Amino acid sequence: MKELKIFGIVVVFTLALYWGVEPFAHGQMHKHVEGHGLVYDGSADIEEASKEKKEAKKAFWADVKKIAALKGDATAGEASYMMCAGCHMDGAANMGGVTPPSLDHAGAIYDKNFLIALIKDPAMATNVDHKYPNGTMAHPMGSVSAMVSAPQDIANVVAYLQAKKAGEVTPKEAFTEACGRCHANRYGKLTQLGEVPKTKSNIKTGQDIDALKYAQKVATEQAALADYLGTLPPDLSIIIRARSEHFLHTFIENPQSQLAGTAMPRTGLNHEGMEKVFAYLEETGDPSKPLREETGPKVLLFFFIFTALAFLWKKAMWKGHH
Amino acid sequence: MAHFEKANSIGEWLDQRLAVNTLKRVMQTEYWIPKDINFLWAMGMVLAATFGILLVSGIFLLMYYQPNIDTAFDSVNYTIMSEVGYGWLWRHIHGVGASIVFLIIYIHMFTGIYYGSYKKGRELIWLSGMGLFVAFSAEAFSGYMLPWGQMSYWAGMVITNLFSGGSLHADGLVEWIRGDYVPGQAFLSRFFMLHVLLIPLAIIGLIVLHFGTLRIPHVNNQEGEEFDYKEAAELYKAGKVKESKVIPFSPVFLSKDIFVMGVYFILFFYLVFYHFGFAMDPVNFDPADGLKTPAHIYPEWYFLWSYEILRPFPTDPGLIAFAFAQVIFFMLPFLDRSPNVAPASRRGAFKFWFWAMLIDMIVLTFMGKLPPEGIWSTIGLVAALAFFVLWIALPIITKTEKKL
Ligand code: HEM
Question: What's the predicted TM-score (pTM) here?
Answer without folding.
Answer: 0.93
